[in-house]
Amino acid sequence: MNKTIQTKRDTIIPATIFLILYAAWAILVASENQFIHEFDRTVINIICNNNPILIKFATVFTNLGNTNVIMVETILLVIVLALFKKFAYAFFTAGTMIAANGYNWIIKHAIARHRPFTHHLVAAHGYSFPSGHSVGSATLFGILIVLTILLVKNKAAKTVLCIVWACFPILIGYTRIFSHVHYPSDVVGGFLEGIAFLLIGYSFLYHYYLEIRAQENSLV
Predict the structure, then answer these.
(1) Which of 20, 152, 171, 181 is deepest in the core (most CB within 10 A)?
(2) CA distance 123 to 218
(3) Percentage of residues in the chain having pLDDT higher than 70
(4) What is the three-state SS of 100-167?
(5) Where, by residue number, does the polypeptide cross the bilayer (predicted)?
(6) pTM of model > 0.85
(7) pLDDT of residue 2 exceeding 50
(8) What is the dihedral of CA 108, 109, 115, 120, to 10 degrees?
(9) How far, in Å, CA of 88 to CA of 205, rounded?
(10) Alpha-carbon distance 71 to 65, whole Å?
């Protein structure tokens, strides 16, 4: 098989799969499917409780996924990449974040799902699906995983960093459910959307930069 065809499949197929999964999940939520209701009820019963330590953790840690915080972190990351003249990675970071969060705003208003009708432990505004905290954190920390894999040479450091980055969106998603401001299906939808846009962004980075650079290096 042609190597170019193989590499395109390696990047485009995962992006397509997650995009389809996200679309299917969004349709289930929008149609108020019974499976979604049962899923939300089951997960909420497992996660939510009145433990004061967990309440404190959830109400504090959830702030790491706030739109303003994610925006500042993204801007700082883009600036750092630009300072080190990693312009392709800076464009990848900015473009992926803008696309993911812009689309999230559109789909939120298209589906217009109300937040859980219960006492919220933290302030929350706007519609519920998908979770903006989950979309933003999954996309940003997913980008950090990609950058770590591409730029960090030490294998041990690379492994540790990737595990740390992966923990952040999972914990942020957990806090959104625990704080009663999102249904579990909102968080899952946010993760699927964030990963889909991350993979789409990586496909562009690969085919318009990494692959070209690899071909140039092979000719030297």
Answers:
(1) 181
(2) 54
(3) 92
(4) HHHHHHHHHHHHCCCCCCCCCCCCCCCCCCCCHHHHHHHHHHHHHHHHHHHHCCCHHHHHHHHHHHHH
(5) 12-31, 64-84, 89-107, 127-152, 159-178, 190-210
(6) yes
(7) no
(8) 80
(9) 7
(10) 10
